[in-house]
Amino acid sequence: xxxxxxxxxxxxxxxxxxxxxxxxxxxxxxxxxxxxxxxxxxxxxxxxxxxxxxxxxxxxxxxxxxxxxxxxxxxxxxxxxxxxxxxxxxxxxxxxxxxxxxxxxxxxxxxxxxxxxxxxxxxxxxxxxxxxxxxxxxxxxxxxxxxxxxxxxxxxxxxxxxxxxxxxxxxxxxxxxxxxxxxxxx
Length: 186
What we know:
Strand content: 25-35%
Number of helices: 4
Order of helices and strands: EEHHEEEHEHEE
CATH class of the domain at 12-132: Alpha Beta
Strand order of the largest sheet: 1-2-3-4-5-6-8-7
CATH architecture of the domain at 12-132: 3-Layer(aba) Sandwich
Structural class: alpha+beta
CATH topology of the domain at 12-132: Aminopeptidase
C-alpha cells in the first residue's frame, strides 16, 4: 500500500553524514558527482551532460520531497542521494497490503568503498520504520551492480525475486534483483 512521503523537515545525522532535503545551493556538488560516467548508469540514468541538466533534476528533487542529500561532514559537501520512492511491492499480491516504499541510492565515485551508503541506508531505514510507519522497505539492484548488492545485504534485506527494469533515459533493459526488509523481521 503506497503512502505519501514528505521529507521537507527531516534531518538525520550519522557518524560521517547528514541526510537532509536538497537545497538549491547544492547544485555544484550535485553536478560534480552526477556528471561522472558510470555513476548514474549503475542506477539507470545517464551521467549529466551539463549543469542545466543537474539543475532540472535538482528541481525535481525539491518538488518531489522524497530524496535526501547525503552531506559529508568532513568534506563539507553533498556526495550523493538516497530517495524514498514508490515500490514494486505495491503491485505484488504478496505485499500490496503493507505500507511500503523503495529506497534507492547514488554516491559519488570518489567515496565508493568507504561504507557510507550502508551508514546512510541504515539511518533512513530506521527513519522509515520509526517516523513514517512503514511496514516494509524494498530495493533492487542491477545484476551487474555488485556494490549495491553488498550494501543491500549489509542492511539486512532479503532476496525476493529477479525482475527486469527498463530505463527510459538509457533505452535499455536491465536484469535486476529485488529485495524486501520487513519491520520486525520477515
